User: Fold 3-phosphoshikimate 1-carboxyvinyltransferase from Sulfuriroseicoccus oceanibius.
Amino acid sequence: MKNLTIHQADPVQGEISVPGDKSISHRSAIFAGLANGTSHIEGFLASDDCLCTARAMEGIGATVTPAEGEDPQRPTKLTITGVGMNLQAPQSEIDCGNSGTAMRLLAGVLAAQPFESTLVGDASLSGRPMGRIITPIQLMGAEAEGVGERQTAPLTIRGNEVHSVHYTLPMASAQVKSCVLLAGMFCEGRTSIHQPAETRDHTERMFVHFGVPVETDGKGLVAIEGPVKLDARDITVPGDISSAAFWLVAAATRPGAKLIVRGVGLNPTRTGILDVLKRMGADIKITVTSGPDDGEPMGDIEVTGKKLQGVVMEGDEIANIIDEIPVLAVAGALSNGVTEIRDAAELRVKETDRISAVVKNLKAMGADVTERDSGMVIRGGALLHGAELECFHDHRIAMAFAVAGMTAKGETVIKDVACIDTSYPGFDSVLGNALAGEPLG
Ligand SMILES: O=C(O)C1=C[C@@H](OP(=O)(O)O)[C@@H](O)[C@H](O)C1
Ligand SMILES: C=C(OP(=O)(O)O)C(=O)O
Assistant:
């Protein structure tokens, strides 16, 4: 079992870049794997989650090759030759590991194929609700079933000639949206969704990048016209703002810290964390270095540490910061005043119940926090102390509490942190620099 042992460290300094964006990397493998021709992907996130998606695409006929000189176990440059929308039936179960994104997006593609496939995952993924994607793909004409009332994995999909639908999402989820739109690629006519709040739009941008027009109305509607042909395209994946989040919070909350994170994705459907930190009083400067021509905006973020002030996070903003809430809760505990997180019940169905995990760990470190059904209230200002913590096999919990441990008095041990590799391989070496008082990168 791999643990992280953390002690109080100096405020972070230096310049770093972070590995590729997880959401964009999943989609790059799926789109390139379906396209006609060969695409080159740079900056691919070679994490366990995204490698599952790349292997799944190989299982249905795409050729995925690491570029020369790349570590074959964790390649960040890939050459993918797609199947031109003619998928092969997989010879075995498709293993999605720990990844909700892999399972829910691949299910959309598989719903439209004339064969049966089975999607499996690890213990955490096998506890997460899949009814949210089974319902729309059944409406589109596929047969799909999971286990029990919550329709959990293993998921069996007997694909079919699916037909287009208009689907109103019951929750703000980019995974459900993407599942329906990916199935819609194979349908005759217009497939549309309505989302109750804006969610990350990487799938829409990727459609456009691969030559498929997307209709949006700015009020929640997204539609494509099928059937679709994708032409191979090269992709440069920006750094993942959800991984940068840990260092951004470590820097923003500590007077004396100074950090630049270079080459980070700045898609406005993902930059809510910067808005929240600024609302808390953080000193953050953003420089856009490349624009929407590449499909996804990217740039540098410079942070100068200060004592911050608590804020409320709620409503439509929650979808934008959904993966950053654990570390934003830590930011709240390190700030003056009250931080409140509302409308975030979706956190209960992530890799673990993130509301309960954050509350438990903050309490163990001496913070004053109250759990609510859809969030929590954190009364900041207390000096955190070290503790022995579980991360509940959840990468975001492990990394968020590594940041908390760096400010706490005494030693913090986070147990069983192998899950960090699902989104941020290399996190521990950056953390090692921070703990040694050296520049992060
Ligand atoms: O579409 C995506 O790439 C993701 C969407 C979000 O999940 P939901 O769609 O369940 O909100 C997010 O939490 C996940 O890390 C990645
Ligand atoms: C929720 C996450 O991912 P997924 O849903 O893909 O497992 C995450 O990375 O925080």
Q: What stands out?
A: Residues 22-236 form a domain with the UDP-n-acetylglucosamine1-carboxyvinyl-transferase; Chain fold (CATH 3.65.10.10). Residues 22, 49, 99-101, 323, 350-351, 396, 423 surround phosphoenolpyruvate (ligand 2) (CB under 6 Å).
